[in-house]
Every structure is written in C-alpha cells, then in structure tokens.
Specification:
The protein has 188 residues and is α/β, with parallel strands linked by helices. The chain is built from 6 helices and 9 strands; from the N terminus they run βαββααββααβαβββ. It has one domain (10-187): Alpha-Beta Plaits (2-Layer Sandwich), CATH 3.30.70. It starts with 9 loop residues before the first strand and ends with a strand.
C-alpha cells in the first residue's frame, strides 16, 4: 500500500458507463470531512425520454475560476492540483465560486453559509487510497488509476482533460472518456 500521494494516479469519468445507481453519492456522504453531504451528484440527461444519467464531480481545473473569483481567498489549490473546498474560517458565503465554475460544481450549503465541493477525497488519495466514489462504482464510470490502466480497459476511448467554453480553454486534473482520437471537448 502506498503511503503518500501518487502523481501517476488520475481520475477518469466515463459518462456512457454511468448507470445512475447513486452508490457514489452515498459513499461520498459517508465521508466525515464533508459533513456527511455528498459532493458528487447524479443527473438525468433527459428524464422524460431516457434513463441516461451523468455524474457531476469537480474537475479540479488547473486555473480554477472558483478560486480566482473568491474575494476571501478561501479556495486553495495544492501542489498536486487538487482544488479544495472553501476554508471554513475564510469563506463568506458570497456564491461567486458557484456562479464562476464552468462545470457548475460548487454548491453553497445554505445552513453553513459555506461553499463545498469535491476535493477528490484528499484525505484518502494523499494516503495512497482511492476516492470513495471510485471504490464503489459498479460500472467503473468513475475510475481512479493510471493512464496505462484506463487505456487497457477502454481501448476505444481517449481520456480528455481539455475543454472549450467559447474562446476559453479549461484544462483539468479529471479526465472525461471520449471517442478514440479526441483531443478536447467544446461545450456550447
């Protein structure tokens, strides 16, 4: 077992494999560090016509908009590229981060007047363990491992961590699995 953060490990999300079981949400809510609230969310794509679901997790942007717009400097990025939940003693509950995130991830917990979001189970990953959500996902829509492992598991897919929102390019620590040969994803 590893005893420190392994930079070779990456987080991969394969939206096509999500079966909407909510196991990731339940596992995340078990974590004491986020107040027993799930920081990962399952959404239905078009609930009226399809059972297709997607999973929403923090993408851990290289230059996170949430941290850039925080007037209280409550959101930090560590040396490993993990974007952490707002520091309780600094967060003023303004919701700037909620509005700035291009992926719609941060949530303001009204009762606490605090922004909370996935921190990739840093308490676990820094100790060489997998994030809770990735350990319970039965379809492996959420996978935490090496790039070599995911390429063997999904030979017809490519991990993508470059997204385009209009003219803005956003690079992330989390990878979305796309068709083989994809280099980025343009979001409209």
């Amino acid at each position: 077992m590893q005893t420190r953060y392994d930079e070779q490990m990456e987080f991969f999300v394969d939206m096509q494999r999500c079966i909407g079981c909510h196991a990731c949400e339940m596992a995340c809510a078990e974590c004491e560090t986020n107040g027993h609230e799930s920081m990962i969310h399952i959404h239905y794509v078009e609930r009226l016509v399809s059972a297709q679901t997607t999973v929403q997790v923090c993408m851990h942007c290289e230059e996170p908009a949430c941290a850039a717009v925080c007037p209280a400097d409550a959101i930090s990025v560590d040396d490993f590229g993990v974007v952490h939940t707002a520091e309780t003693s600094r967060c003023i509950g303004c919701s700037n981060c909620v509005m700035a995130c291009p992926f719609g991830v941060p949530k303001k917990m009204e009762q606490a007047e605090l922004m909370m979001k996935c921190n990739m189970c840093y308490d676990r990953t820094s100790a060489g363990k997998k994030p809770m959500c990735a350990t319970v996902c039965p379809s492996q829509a959420l996978f935490y491992g090496t790039r070599e492992e995911i390429e063997k598991m999904r030979p017809n897919s490519t991990p993508v961590n470059k997204f385009y929102f209009g003219n803005a390019e956003v690079n992330t620590k989390v990878n979305i699995m796309m068709p083989k040969g994809s280099t980025g994803l343009r979001v409209h």
